[in-house]
């Protein structure tokens, strides 16, 4: 490669190339010459405990027989929950639209608390905590910001949320939020306004705190923690927070914790975090392979709403073999593993009309730059809980409809 071209490719997001028949394709950059390529992780020591659990010599499936306690933190859908959501939406619809969270909040109207424990756990067997990726036979796989955008309607751009750096523009003392009633139902009863009364600033912030803890990040305590106040206040004030990157980093954290818990003698318990997002992503990639279907069509133009209807409610420990076999059958990358680069995609217009790499409107290039650019993403609402991860779309180029230089796992 000429030196001039090499320098250009080191700074480009997309690296175009053409075949003999004249068709144009692209790799996801930037490009590093083989003489400069560093294999392995130079920041973290090699640790066999980060290997996917599927490499364990023996797996005792009896540890996963009772899944009730394992997934107790999944978000609930109750009458009071829906009543409060409907009440606040009628007054705050325009704020949610302007902040970019309207479609995302609509997901809380559906059955996110239904899950397939065997599907989740069997896939977590393949999670590598060092690379933040699933090691399928065809190579690395993982939810990307494009997947999150399709499922939730969240854009990949916005301000990074740093805990403890956002100021309290509305003092928490002035809001008089009752912290002695933290459980979900008690919190709703304490802060939900009376019918035919306006939704106050206090009620809106309280609702957003409940939504973030119960329906987005799914705290293990099944309570509304005080530390969600700053983020809820920022959303109320229409701050352009990049929730998609915060959500993806939180998914990394909960997958790391879930994978690590598989090695315990007592097995995993009380898994928390946005595993509902993981469930919907799995529904999307397994829909055709496992013939997942539903006769119910949700009244919501969002991929995530449709995917909620595909979650199987038939739970059996014998399903582990079915799901493991399905994953092992992905010997070659197929369109099933890139479910959101199709012309029939539903969702917000900015994504639906620009979900093909070859036909992106110039004014939405920033969105795709967010999808395809390497970045550092952060999870955690408190400084002591902060974890930092690399967002590495180059490991998952094929999920964007691009070519991939090295699709095989690093090991």
UniProtKB/TrEMBL annotation:
GO terms for biological process: meristem maintenance. It comes from the Eukaryota. Transmembrane segments: none annotated. It holds the Pfam family PMD. Residues 100-407 form the Aminotransferase-like plant mobile domain. InterPro entries: AminoTfrase-like_pln_mobile (IPR019557), MAIN-like (IPR044824). This is Aminotransferase-like plant mobile domain-containing protein. It comes from Cajanus cajan. The lineage of its organism: Eukaryota, Viridiplantae, Streptophyta, Embryophyta, Tracheophyta.
């Amino acid at each position: 490669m000429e030196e001039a071209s090499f320098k250009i490719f080191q700074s480009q997001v997309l690296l175009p190339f053409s075949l003999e028949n004249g068709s144009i394709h692209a790799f996801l950059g930037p490009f590093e010459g083989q003489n400069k390529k560093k294999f392995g992780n130079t920041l973290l020591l090699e640790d066999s405990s980060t290997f996917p659990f599927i490499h364990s010599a023996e797996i005792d499936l009896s540890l996963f027989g009772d899944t009730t306690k394992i997934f107790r933190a999944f978000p609930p859908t109750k009458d009071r929950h829906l009543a409060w959501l409907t009440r606040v939406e009628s007054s705050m619809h325009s704020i949610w639209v302007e902040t970019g969270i309207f479609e995302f909040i609509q997901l809380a109207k559906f059955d996110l608390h239904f899950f397939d424990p065997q599907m989740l756990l069997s896939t977590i067997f393949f999670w590598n905590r060092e690379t933040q990726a699933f090691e399928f036979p065809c190579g690395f796989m993982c939810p990307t910001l494009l997947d999150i955008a399709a499922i939730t309607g969240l854009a990949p751009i916005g301000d990074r949320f740093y805990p403890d750096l956002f100021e309290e523009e509305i003092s928490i003392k002035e809001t008089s939020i009752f912290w002695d009633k933290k459980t979900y139902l008690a919190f709703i009863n304490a802060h939900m306004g009376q019918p035919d009364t306006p939704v106050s600033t206090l009620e809106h912030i309280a609702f957003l705190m409940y939504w973030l803890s119960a329906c987005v990040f799914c705290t293990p305590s099944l309570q509304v923690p005080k530390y969600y106040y700053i983020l809820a206040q920022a959303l109320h004030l229409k701050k352009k927070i990049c929730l998609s990157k915060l959500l993806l980093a939180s998914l990394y954290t909960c997958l790391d914790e879930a994978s690590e818990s598989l090695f315990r003698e007592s097995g995993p318990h009380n898994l928390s975090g946005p595993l509902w997002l993981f469930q919907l992503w799995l529904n999307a990639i397994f829909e055709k392979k496992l013939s997942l279907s539903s006769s119910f069509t949700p009244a919501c133009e969002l991929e995530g709403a449709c995917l909620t209807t595909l979650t199987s409610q038939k739970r059996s420990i014998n399903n582990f073999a079915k799901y493991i076999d399905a994953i092992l059958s992905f010997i070659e990358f197929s369109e099933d593993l890139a479910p959101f680069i199709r012309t029939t995609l539903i969702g917000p217009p900015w994504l639906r009309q620009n979900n093909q790499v070859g036909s992106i409107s110039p004014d939405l290039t920033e969105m795709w730059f967010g999808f395809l650019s390497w970045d550092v993403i952060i999870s955690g609402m408190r400084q002591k809980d902060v974890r930092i991860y690399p967002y590495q779309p180059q490991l998952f180029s094929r999920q964007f409809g691009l070519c991939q230089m090295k699709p095989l796992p690093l090991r």
